[in-house]
Specification:
Elements: H1 15-29, H2 32-35, E1 44-49, E2 58-61, E3 79-85, H3 88-101, H4 133-150, H5 155-170, H6 174-193, H7 199-205, H8 207-228
Antiparallel strand pairs: 1-2, 1-3
Helix pairs in contact: 3-6, 5-6
């Protein structure tokens, strides 16, 4: 490849960490073959502005950012930029799983009452309610944990949550301990096993397998239903059901 002087391999533990590392290297190095889409779109970023009273992760396209914001050395203080991500689905999936582990607010405008997501544990403490000084510090601490995860530094976050789990168990707060354990196990499983591939290629490569499975399932159901409605003859014997070729066979 013209202009390429060499390459370097970096081993990571999962596809999730590989995704974060790749986006970080693209953002910092700005390689010409990764910086621009082949069509008229630009890459998608996750932006967190720590200068806000209640920082909230949001999505932004490259053309919506300041001219220097997409470059690591040109970002203003307090603006955290993560990406670029290959598509909206991947970026949303990453934030959705992080939010299930560390709740945070994503509302564009803050109301005067707690939002719906605060009732299902995805926005706690909710900035839309009247928060105490302790709750405000807790919220900013959670945002810092989100930043650590998006930076690929996941171990300290899991370690901190594990300490909270043990403390809750020691205090016999088993309900809180169970919630924390479920969150940790779910996110750890996501990080270790979740594949980040092109959805179109997955659908194309597995279409024949899915069609074959569907044919077997429908054929089995038809045979089961027809066997239920076979009536015995006068002699008491069940007449053999004539074998017919399945309409789903190719």
């Amino acid at each position: 490849m013209p202009g390429c002087r060499g390459y370097q391999n970096r081993n990571v533990e999962s596809e999730f960490l590989a995704l974060l590392l790749e986006s970080k290297l693209i953002r910092e190095s700005q390689p010409p073959y990764n910086r621009i889409w082949k069509d008229d779109k630009t890459y998608l970023y996750i932006v967190i502005d720590l200068s806000d009273s209640f920082p909230r992760p949001r999505f932004a396209r490259g053309h919506d950012l300041p001219a220097t914001a997409s470059h690591h050395r040109g970002m203003r203080a307090g603006l955290k930029l993560f990406g670029p991500f290959p598509n909206t689905q991947v970026a949303e999936e990453v934030l959705r799983e992080i939010r299930r582990l560390i709740p945070f607010c994503m509302s564009k405008k803050l109301g005067k009452r707690p939002c719906f997501y605060s009732k299902i544990g995805l926005c706690s403490p909710c900035p839309g309610s009247q928060l105490s000084a302790v709750q405000k510090r807790q919220y900013r601490h959670q945002i810092q944990q989100v930043i650590r995860i998006l930076s690929g530094n996941i171990t300290p976050v899991i370690t901190s949550l594990t300490k909270q789990l043990k403390q809750a168990s020691k205090q016999q707060d088993f309900e809180t301990a169970l919630v924390l354990r479920t969150k940790i196990e779910r996110f750890t499983h996501f990080v270790q096993t979740h594949p980040f591939r092109d959805s179109a290629s997955i659908s194309y490569n597995t279409s024949d397998l899915k069609l074959s499975s569907l044919q077997k399932l429908l054929t089995s159901e038809i045979n089961h239903l027809t066997s239920r409605y076979r009536r015995p003859s006068r002699s008491g014997a069940v007449p053999p059901f004539p074998r017919q070729k399945s309409p789903f066979s190719l």
